[in-house]
Amino acid sequence: xxxxxxxxxxxxxxxxxxxxxxxxxxxxxxxxxxxxxxxxxxxxxxxxxxxxxx
Amino acid sequence: xxxxxxxxxxxxxxxxxxxxxxxxxxxxxxxxxxxxxxxxxxxxxxxxxxxxxxxxxxxxxxxxxxxxxxxxxxxxxxxxxxxxxxxxxxxxxxxxxxxxxxxxxxxxxxxxxxxxxxxxxxxxxxxxxxxxxxxxxxxxxxxxxxxxxxxxxxxxxxxxxxxxxxxxxxxxxxxxxxxxxxxxxxxxxxxxxxxxxxxxxxxxxxxxxxxxxxxxxxxxxxxxxxxxxxxxxxxxxxxxxxxxxxxxxxxxxxxxxxxxxxxxxxxxxxxxxxxxxxxxxxxxxxxxxxxxxxxxxxxxxxxxxxxxxxxxxxxxxxxxxxxxxxxxxxxxxxxxxxxxxxxxxxxxxxxxxxxxxxxxxxxxxxxxxxxxxxxxxxxxxxxxxxxxxxxxxxxxxxxxxxxxxxxxxxx
Lengths: 54, 411
Prior knowledge:
Keywords (chain B): FAD, Flavoprotein, Oxidoreductase
Largest sheet of chain A: 3 strands, antiparallel
Strand order of the largest sheet of chain A: 2-1-3
Shape of chain B: globular
InterPro entries (chain B): FAD-oxidoreductase/Apoptosis, FAD/NAD-bd_sf, FAD/NAD-binding_dom, FAD/NAD-linked_Rdtase_dimer_sf, Reductase_C
Radius of gyration of chain A: 10 Å
Strand order of the largest sheet of chain B: 3-2-1-7-19
GO molecular function (chain B): oxidoreductase activity, acting on NAD(P)H
CATH architecture of chain A: Single Sheet
CATH topology of chain A: Rubrerythrin, domain 2
GO cellular component, one term (chain B): cytoplasm
Pfam families (chain B): Pyr_redox_2, Reductase_C
Distance between the termini of chain B: 39 Å
Strand content of chain A: 15-25%
Distance between the termini of chain A: 13 Å
CATH architecture of the largest domain in chain B: 3-Layer(bba) Sandwich
Shape of chain A: globular
Oligomer: heterodimer
Radius of gyration of chain B: 22 Å
CATH superfamily of the largest domain in chain B: FAD/NAD(P)-binding domain
Largest sheet of chain B: 5 strands, parallel
């Protein structure tokens, strides 16, 4: 499971957690999220995210 | 990028906020092979500022996690950092800047990204050490040290910063009163429906409001002990937060003779009146096609878009289509996402029930969506972004009909 970060607001998409509020189940790989998904915090498009390592 | 860049051309970026930070990364991403230098007067590499009034202030995230890029990024990408340094003057014809310590640095292209600073109020007592503004990490550290359980906090200004600080201060157990001189909250930046909704949410959380009320003075000999309002009321306080807007930090540009008018006047490519000097972010006043006039945006997405535009121009790439301005805020468990600017001539319709705490206000002018304010409603924001950009004709009634599919309407 990897993490991705929104370059606009800094929000983390954690594949282990998913984004249940937007219908993205825990365990969903970032690549498998629909293209019209948006950052749940700021509303940036999916292509605003980049891989994140702590 | 593994190879050492050639010395020319040299892009010098003054200001290591979101705009400057995004620009230097984007230049390398677009394959810029010249030299890049990023100058910032704070000791930090570029960081995310919006969490300073929210997650960071509440202690839910760390300073390290605010960084736009890991510290190693700049070395790997051959981006020269001059942090904690300040440029004193620009010499546009010589293509050179002069630092505070008297040293100089030559450039081929200069990008100004020095942002905006918190507006002060011309009233007695604003200089006290417990009267705080919030723009950067140093401000936020002072604020975090002062915000404690049961502290009495008076927030001057009912805009986004004021309301975000109010929500955080309540979460930390402080007593909060927000004083706003306009008859309602968010008067310049949100519709009355959204302002009314947010006010009732804040009131339910225990925030008190004094609308339509000015400030006569901040009282106290050495520190603020009370705020005296224009109606004569005296609000005792341990802390005052000033959230009364920001003004562009454009002194360098002005002194260098660049055209300025509430910010540095730039064209669609963010180029200033000097062909080799650009300005991006909160300090840039740039024409926005769908509004047909120049606007200075104080917005992270705006800063990012301008940074991408300048990077494309400097790399000789075709720039992306201009974005309709958009914004976000979060207060308590409410996520507010806005696309477009409020237009008082537009017709507004509410989609969804505000009592459900998930709804949106669509603003339509001549069949075109000009603005959408979405509360806990990402699909409405997404549809609004598409509609505002495409200009597809819509009717207020179809937008108000919750049973009509937004994706179909926006498609």
